[in-house]
Amino acid sequence: MKLQLWKAALQEVANLSGYHLRNGNEYSIFIEGIVQGVSRMANDHLYLYVAKHPVGLKHRVEDVNLHLISIGTNDVRMVGILGRGGVGKTTLAKAIYNSVAFQFEASCFLENIGQTNQEYGLVQLQETLLSKIFENGRSLKVDNIDMGINMIRRRLHSKRVLLILDDVYRLTQLEGLAGHYDWFGEGSRIIITTRDSHMLERHGVYSIYEMMELNHDEAFQLFCWHAFKREKPADGYREFVEEMIKLNAGNPLLLTVVGSHLYGRSESEWQQALIQNKNNLPCNIYSQLKIVYDRLSENEKNIFLDIACFFRGDVFDDVIKILDSFGFSPKSWIPRLIEKCLIYKLDERLQMHDLLCDMGKEIVRQESPQNPRARSRLYFHEDVREVFETDTGTDRVEAILVDFPKGSDIIRLSPKAIKKITRLRFFRCRNAHFLA
């Protein structure tokens, strides 16, 4: 029996068609393909999740790789990916990372740099960069920004690395993580995503890819994937889709969130959503996203705002436990927020797009634009200081995050301010010292 199986297997192999190479150039391309395939399989741990529906992404990755990155050259290059919020800069950067990371000695993707506080956060980013580049990086301790700069320069100047800095909006962030071309070894590539072209110019980054909105066909396909779970709309909905695409201007984030919001809705609900969008003209990203937020249940709104202000990037299961202690029933509502593409789970952590996070914080700020003490949530360190150091605490405050820049003065507590915060359900202190 075994002999027959062996014979059958050998016969099957013998009948396999080969790959005919007509010249030396084809041979080298064929071998390169094999090497890349094996390298990808050996480095699966390097790969980043890009998008559930990566519409229009392939040709953009090819454009950047071909015209700006040019992996084969030995010069050190810094490349900027420029575009407005929600246009897909981070998604493109992740796809580029996945396509070329295996060709470098080491690689590092630092996401959401703009969300870190100015000084203490930059030190943490320097530590993260070093820990990802070096296997023993976990033992490396960075005490301050200058020390981090010296460590990066000393350890990376002879190493061929791929470094992606995502969502940079301060020049000091660039200077602290990729201050100059000579910090890196020959053939290194540093890719920076940002909304600020002037910052790139000031840092000497002149190779820039401007990320444009999706064209009509791409926008149509992406919206349909989220609104109907397929490439084309359901019968009778094409005109609705065309109108929604016009209103959302080819912005991938808007198309994703609005499309997900409309999935499974009735025709009358589509009509109502269309009217709401038209009434917000001239529209902006905030107003369009706010329409989706306004239609959430009360628990969904509370969970969304808490994540935006306090829990973005935290361990998923830990956040569930905390929100459950508030009585928000997160096990029921968080899956619905994920379905609506308002939040997502990545590497066991709870994440949210920058613009959605900014919108959540703006919603809280608008509760009382001039008086922080009348807002439901306090997260900005200057607002927290004002409430704690003066007699201005109120029963409107439900949750507080104390996260001061490193080296800030001691906060002097006003006992009266604390006494008045009678509805406080959450308090987190990350970097502050109190004196009553």
Automatic annotation (TrEMBL):
<dbReference type="InterPro" id="IPR044974">
    <property type="entry name" value="Disease_R_plants"/>
</dbReference>
<dbReference type="InterPro" id="IPR058192">
    <property type="entry name" value="WHD_ROQ1-like"/>
</dbReference>
<dbReference type="InterPro" id="IPR002182">
    <property type="entry name" value="NB-ARC"/>
</dbReference>
<protein>
    <recommendedName>
        <fullName>AAA+ ATPase domain-containing protein</fullName>
    </recommendedName>
</protein>
<dbReference type="Pfam" id="PF00931">
    <property type="entry name" value="NB-ARC"/>
</dbReference>
<dbReference type="Pfam" id="PF23282">
    <property type="entry name" value="WHD_ROQ1"/>
</dbReference>
<dbReference type="GO" id="GO:0043531">
    <property type="term" value="F:ADP binding"/>
</dbReference>
<feature type="domain" description="AAA+ ATPase">
    <location>
        <begin position="75"/>
        <end position="217"/>
    </location>
</feature>
<dbReference type="InterPro" id="IPR003593">
    <property type="entry name" value="AAA+_ATPase"/>
</dbReference>
<dbReference type="GO" id="GO:0006952">
    <property type="term" value="P:defense response"/>
</dbReference>
<keyword id="KW-0677">Repeat</keyword>
